[in-house]
Write a structure and sequence with these properties.
The protein contains 8 helices and 4 strands, in the order αααββββααααα. With about 300 residues, it is mainly alpha-helical. The chain folds into 2 domains: about 70 residues; about 180 residues, f41 fragment of flagellin, N-terminal domain, CATH 1.20.1330.10. The strands form 2 sheets. It has a two-stranded antiparallel ribbon. The N and C termini lie close together (about 10 Å).
């Protein structure tokens, strides 16, 4: 039974079209390294890939938050380190000034204390580059303003909690009213740090040795609180670093899983591509022979 010329030509053209499509797909796989080009290639795989990409997006969001928290806490730790150093220097000056001194010596020590008050004020107004660290929620407001003898607090008592992983939040700041005991926020029986230092300066000028001993005792209480605040900052920083390491590991796992779903086996893909190219070449030869009438001669 003879096969109609039109039918044979149509079947061959259809076959060439399918082989050509397979070759094109395999070429894209080899070039991109991705086997899952569209959902219809593997519906189940496409669903898994979508879920993995969603997980990667969440991880990236948390990584951004963790990086922000880490930068903030490191800035706060640096500011607290400076504050502790300045308080130690003020204590040393106060101890030296408590001994009997001439008016000129007392004035020298008092000026040193005034300079240290300015230093404390600068550290208290530290920023992360944009936002004030010790302003509570008022991060764009300069928290501490005024002359050494009357420095006030313009921030609030707000503390910021941010989510650093699924279901885990962390407070990243210390409000300035607590850090410096403004208005007795940390200890109602204790003057704020600026008031303690300003009183020390005044008592130094007056040669009030007994009063200086009281100021030194107050300064020790401020120093103890700063140690506690900085220790808390250090603990939070450790938590953030652990969260960062965990997120980095999670990201790697999700990327590997996504790769196993989407990535192509290059060796296998290249072998299949060569096979399809050979098929296409053979089919093209048949088509050429058919159109030239040679094959039809033998089939008649």
């Amino acid at each position: 039974m003879r096969i109609a010329n039109n039918m044979m030509t149509g079947n061959l053209a259809s076959h060439l079209s399918r082989v050509s499509a397979r070759i094109a797909r395999l070429q894209v796989e080899v070039a991109s390294g991705i086997s899952l080009q569209k959902p219809s290639d593997d519906p189940d795989g496409a669903l898994r890939a979508a879920m993995l990409r969603s997980g990667l997006a969440r991880t990236a969001m948390y990584e951004k938050t963790v990086n922000y928290a880490e930068a903030w806490l490191k800035s706060e730790d640096t500011a607290l380190d400076t504050l502790q150093r300045l308080v130690r220097e003020a204590r040393a000056v106060g101890i030296a000034a408590a001994n009997p001194r001439s008016p000129e010596e007392r004035e020298t020590y008092a000026r040193q204390l005034d300079q240290l008050i300015d230093g404390v004020k600068q550290a208290a107004n530290s920023t992360d580059g944009v936002h004030y660290l010790f302003s509570g929620f008022q991060t764009l407001t300069t928290p501490f303003t005024g002359a050494p003898a009357g420095i006030g607090y313009a921030g609030d008592a707000g503390v910021k909690a941010i989510e650093i992983s699924e279901g885990m939040s962390l407070t990243v700041n210390h409000a300035g009213d607590v850090v410096f005991n403004m208005g007795g926020a940390a200890d109602a029986a204790l003057p704020d740090l600026f008031a303690t230092l300003a009183t020390m300066s005044a008592r130094t000028r007056a040669g009030d040795s007994d009063g200086l001993q009281q100021s030194l005792a107050e300064l020790d209480q401020h120093a103890t609180r700063l140690v506690s605040v900085r220790a808390e900052t250090g603990t939070r920083l450790q938590q953030v670093e652990l969260a960062s390491a965990h997120l980095a590991q999670t990201d790697l796992v999700l990327q590997d899983l996504l790769g196993s779903v989407e990535s192509t086996d290059l060796t296998e893909a290249i072998v299949h591509l060569k096979e399809q190219q050979n098929v296409y070449q053979a089919a093209s030869y048949v088509a050429s022979s058919l159109m030239n009438g040679g094959l039809l001669y033998w089939l008649k």
